[in-house]
Amino acid sequence: MRLSLFSLLAFLMITGCSNSPADRAANSINKDSLLRHIETLSDDSFIGRATGTAGEEMSVDYLISEFERMGAKPAAGDGSYTQEFPLLGQTTSNAKMSVSTDGRTPFALQYYDEFMAWPANQSGQVDVNNAELVYVGYGIQAPEEDWDDFKDVDVEGKIIVVKNNDPAYDPDLFGGNARLYYGRYDYKYEKAKELGAIGAIIIHTDETAGYGWNVVANGWSRERFYLKGEGENAQGNTEFNGWMTQQASRLLFEEAGLNLDDLMEAADSPDFEPVPLNGVRMNVSMDASYREIRAKNVLAKVEGNDPELKDEYLVLTAHFDHLGITTPVEGDSINNGASDNAAGVAALLEMMEAYKEIQPVLKRSVLGLVVSAEEVGLLGSQYWAEHPTVHPGNVTANINLDGMNVYGKTRDVVVVGYGRTSLSDLLEEEAQKQGRTVEPDPHPDRGYFYRSDHFNMAKVGIPAIFPNPGTQFTDKGEDFLAVRDSISDANYHTVNDEINEYWDLSGAEIDTRLFFLTGFRALNQEEMQSWKRGDEFEATRLRMIEERP
């Protein structure tokens, strides 16, 4: 008996049983396991994991096998691991845009060089003739900011012309220099649809967009993807969306006797009122062809045990898709997507397995949502948000894993969404236990919060954070950050996104442990996570909680 007790005590000392179950599970997450997933998903045999390809099917099969191996249950709602959804690939051709004044046509604009446009309602043809135009400033309606650029002006059946971004002149308005969703092109087009405009054109400037016209022209001239509409008018009555260069916009305004620069400046006031481009009409036409794709999200869950909380969930998201096969560069045409985002998927899988290890002590449940079609517009997460397998009001929070720190340990971690949620506070507390700091997004003006899958979670009210790699490396030397940034920039969305000699997954290991422990806190706290008071998503959150079953 004494020998047995002594042996047990020795075992407990060796295994560090003084640590909590969560700490022990976190320590089971290691760089070798992360690397195994990354090597598999970024292998050439997965042909770049593009949506709707054999590479997607291989990825789905691998994810299902991993979830089955660890004992995570199917969570798609129909007893399976997969949530299938329809996509349309849209290719625009024969796009034309011209201006009419008093029956004459003073000028036409050149597609690609001066304007970009595409059907907004999944139609095969657009033919807009003699449409009125109204300049609506930023095109924002934000009651919480006491801001309305439309001032009850009826824009139904008209083309709205919109300034990009959101007001940044006052630190107390719209987050100051931070780009909120109001500043994203998605919002402008959604507002046009909501108010019944026949079309929406965003004025491009390098300053308001944060990138040059070449990004607009190259990005929107390729095949674009959408969730397939349900019903004839599922996409609304807006016939087209588009962009126009600053110089072309200046010509358009001059034709109406208006000064573009003055009106762009006038938009920086809550007293701004819409300005009709009197006497000027616009004609827009184009054709579009479509192909249908069936894409798949993969969903698995580890169920909690508290009778009152187990139907509430923490949602982990990561996208498994990448760019597939593109034009060869030095004989290599496969975009392996090792960092973006095999690394994020690896972290999600490791976190799910660690949660499974301590399932008996989990109060809430955890949902692993591995989405497709992120690279073509966040469409997999959008589909889940619009067809959720768990009511958003029953989701405590979302941690989105899109790109991990693959270059070594850091003293810090960056959080896009820092300070906006109670979950961000939990992460900061856990980071302090590691002797680390949490830093905000160093580029808030770029709107990164609205450019990955957590954004679709936020749109339905779910408190979400998007952790990013830190910058303060502990053992790489003072100059390594510049080296990392140059490598990352050179590899992003290219065939070079592969495991290379600079990789050091000790950083991903410690970060994944941090996110795991943060998630554990959210799973076991009595209260669900929340947005901070006054946040743009707070009202939706409160409504979803009220509506939950």
Structure summary:
The chain has helices spanning 2-15, 21-27, 31-41, 54-70, 185-194, 206-209, 213-221, 246-255, 260-266, 338-357, 379-386, 422-433, 454-459, 480-491, 506-524, 538-547, and strands spanning 73-74, 82-101, 104-109, 115-119, 125-135, 141-142, 147-148, 159-163, 199-203, 224-227, 240-244, 275-302, 313-319, 324-329, 332-335, 365-371, 395-400, 412-416, 437-440, 464-468.
Q: Would you spell out the secondary-structure blueprint of this structure?
A:
Blueprint (H helix, E strand, L loop, with lengths): L1 H14 L5 H7 L3 H11 L12 H17 L2 E2 L7 E20 L2 E6 L5 E5 L5 E11 L5 E2 L4 E2 L10 E5 L21 H10 L4 E5 L2 H4 L3 H9 L2 E4 L12 E5 L1 H10 L4 H7 L8 E28 L10 E7 L4 E6 L2 E4 L2 H20 L7 E7 L7 H8 L8 E6 L11 E5 L5 H12 L3 E4 L13 H6 L4 E5 L11 H12 L14 H19 L13 H10 L2
Parallel strand pairs: 5-8, 8-9, 9-11, 13-16, 13-17, 17-20, 18-19
Antiparallel strand pairs: 1-12, 2-3, 2-10, 2-12, 4-11, 5-12, 6-7, 12-16, 14-15, 18-20
What are the main properties of this structure?
Aminopeptidase, 32% helix, 549 residues, alpha/beta, 2 domains, 16 helices, single chain, two-stranded antiparallel ribbon, Glucose Oxidase, domain 1
Structural overview:
- The chain is of the alpha/beta class and 549 residues long.
- The protein folds into 2 domains: 88-290, 3-Layer(bba) Sandwich (Glucose Oxidase, domain 1); 294-547, Aminopeptidase (3-Layer(aba) Sandwich).
- It is built from 16 helices and 20 strands.
- It has helices at residues 2-15, 21-27, 31-41, 54-70, 185-194, 206-209, 213-221, 246-255, 260-266, 338-357, 379-386, 422-433, 454-459, 480-491, 506-524, 538-547, and strands at 73-74, 82-101, 104-109, 115-119, 125-135, 141-142, 147-148, 159-163, 199-203, 224-227, 240-244, 275-302, 313-319, 324-329, 332-335, 365-371, 395-400, 412-416, 437-440, 464-468.
- The strands form 3 sheets. The chain has a 16-stranded mixed beta sheet that branches. The protein has a two-stranded antiparallel ribbon with strand order 6-7.
- β6 (141-142) and β7 (147-148) form a beta hairpin.
- α3 crosses α10 (338-357).
- The radius of gyration is 25 Å and the shape is globular.
